[in-house]
Amino acid sequence: MTRSVAAAATIAALAGLSACSDDKDDSPDASATPAGRICDGALDEPAVAALKRLGGTDAFEELTGKTAGGQPNRFSLSRAAAHLHDGTELRSRCTVYVPGDNSGAPLVQLDFQAADKPPTRSGVEKADPDKQRTYYPLGAYAATTEENSTVLYFACPTKGKDGTKPYVDAGVFSSANQLKGHSTSKDRMVILNSVARHLAEKLGCADKAQLPSTVPDGESVTP
Length: 223
Known about the structure:
The chain is of the alpha+beta class. It has helices at 3-15, 38-41, 45-55, 77-82, 121-127, 184-203, 206-209; strands at 33-34, 59-62, 94-97, 108-115, 133-135, 141-145, 149-160, 163-174, 219-221. Strand 6 and strand 7 (149-160) form a beta hairpin.
């Protein structure tokens, strides 16, 4: 099984989505990329440090090749901004691997899509009360769930084929057995916040997004 095929299966299991199977023909970058250049260079200094802690290394690999929709797999802020209203086969996602790891599981995958409204804390806790979460005062809603999911919604009206949507849903799916360090929740949010902030600037909604350059400590809730 190639790394990209295993990655698709792993992410689909984590996210509960079969849409990630468009990665089946991808290949990882042949050479490691410095952390500061990952995700189209959208990681600021704290995010670079966070990624290094999570991966236990200074350099990483991103997917090359193309999606089922013919889009490059290597992340681009411009393509992410242009395809917020499209399916996963067209959206630009940043999928990051630890070099030399043959498990097929990415360290993190960042994805961005247009959304009608953010979830609420009471709503997510009622729907799934048995998960440990950490909430962060960022955007319209920001939380990590155990070692897998990181979610950040921010206000940013965009128009697409499905009409105008007032928010962007930014997420990270991560492979728990890949994560290193003692602050994996905050490090994941620091990475996501940095890329989301750059995307908000690209979209012209940075003033509305409420994404500060420094991520405050979160509030952890254990069921």
